[in-house]
Amino acid sequence: MFGYAGKILHVDLTTGSLDVEEPPEELYRTYLGGSALGLYYLLKNTPAGANPYGPENTMAFMLSGITGAPVAGQSRCTVVAKSPLTGGVGDSQAGGFWPAELKFAGFDGIVVRGTSPKPVYLWINKGKVELRDASHLWGKTTTEVDAILEAELEDKRIEVIQVGPAGEQQVRFAAIMSMANRAHGRTGMGAVMGSKKLKAIAVRGGKKKLPMADPEALRAIVQKTVPLVRGDEDVWGLAKYGTMDITESQSAGGGLPTRNYRSGSFGFDDAKAIGAERYFNEVLRGADTGDQLKQGRDTCYSCAVRCKRVVEAEWHDKAINHESGGPEYETVAMFGSDCGINDPYAIAFASQMCNEYGADTITAGATMAFAIDCYEHGIITAEDTGGIELKWGDADAMMAMLEATLKREGFGTVLADGSAAAARHIGNGAEDFVVASKDQEFPAHMPQVKPSLSVIYAVNPFGADHQSSEHDPMYTPGTIDSWPEKYGKRMADIGLTDPQPADSLNEEKVRYALTTQYAYSAMDTADVCQFVYGPAWQLMGVDDLAGVVTAVTGMETSVDDLITYGRRRLNLLRAFNAREGITRERDTLPKRIYDDPLEDGPNAGATVDRETVAVALDTYYRLAGWDPETGNPPRETLEELDLAWVADELGV
What we know:
By secondary structure, the protein is α+β, with helices and mostly antiparallel strands. It has 30 helices and 18 strands.
């Protein structure tokens, strides 16, 4: 086999045993890697009804066959486990250098079972594996652990993936971090890893070369696409400014979450204050000397886009260090406009705090906005918060509550479970201020402005997620016509040729949402960056991804094959939830989205219509081949995807 290492490491933390599996080639051909392969092990090894914090919850860290290849966007890892945040399936991706390093160390993935009686870390050194005591690392922040392990293992070139203090404390939205700034942020995977007392996995690989089926074919794809980093305005904006490049345009279009989703517009001056240009000119590392493009950007292994921001500044005389990276758009929106804060330095410090403690910035910021909203309406008081007076735009108060939350101190103990669980604890109408689906907070893209997201946020198996489908503006006549050789061709490649008005939610728009969901699901199975590959604005299209998979692994892969991989993974996610008793009843949107009209901005008065969404959900289940009553996959759909064993598991 090409591309794959051909080995999966199995770790039982209860017994301390370490075993290596050499899976049959058919397993790789069926699941490809990444999320789908991880879900295979999760469903096989985690019993129904398992406690997310219990030893029976299996965690899988999975790569794909192209991880480590010399092409942009491939150094990513998927982590799956049962989620403590949603109670259903947990699934999260992150990039950096750790994924490629694990491949070079000789493994395609790691399956972790059990719970260690004491803190441990896993040391993988060029194929050799051992568990080591991590008592001296417990309680340390991510940057501290990186420095300690580099010294202890006498190697500055190791790559470390770890949980911070938030994961140790089982903050439900704790993240798994690498490089102290790449986050497996969503669904609380850090809380699961922390509950197992697995503090870190340190890796050192061997030769940085992957055996490939057709190196020349891969080289041709790379040579075609690398010039587009500067030649394509979409990609160059991402490379220069990072994802925060869209902050001001989102606000101008009325789609920037503001004051806990009460508005979609932060106002011209406030949006500009936290926009990409100000970060670029003031906050990014190198801003004082004018070399932001050199020092203000970081990258993942072998990626030419270099979209990761690097911040170096101060907030209230507290250092914002470049080791902790810098905020993405989601972080800027959730700690910024959603909390009414227009101070980019405060937002960067909040981002650093989350990265040091290991927490998802989307849920953390949204939970702070929820708490401020509750305080403003008298649902919680200073007596509840320990004297912290939460107000829109008060960065000091927000930061104090964030720190208490990440440490599980005072009222932060309540908020550490996320806004949905906190609302159930608080009562008194707090549930009306939650903006979440399946208890996972909404990201910074608003279904009031992007209607197809109302469907995806509701049906997505692991809760609201903005990276599970393409967004509405990419499938409008104006967008397709403006660049037919890019947007038009890429949509046509996946069978989408009838673009719809951006504000529509008809059957064709639902088909668009589902089809692009399959495409994004395929990317999470191939473990590639969605900012590099995709059906719309990215550096490369889905056809290029098919070419990369073929060139590296030797498995002839078409666009249709990738869509099948994506569909198989989506059905595995849904099947796990079905086994946990999660049905269509939880495919819901929060009251705020339906009943609270946006207060100001160009979309003032906008809501999402319940009946329109209900009809769209019926359409979605029909197109997906799922039972319209339960929203779950029936046997015939699973058998069509070579998942008969899953149907047996579900008893359907």
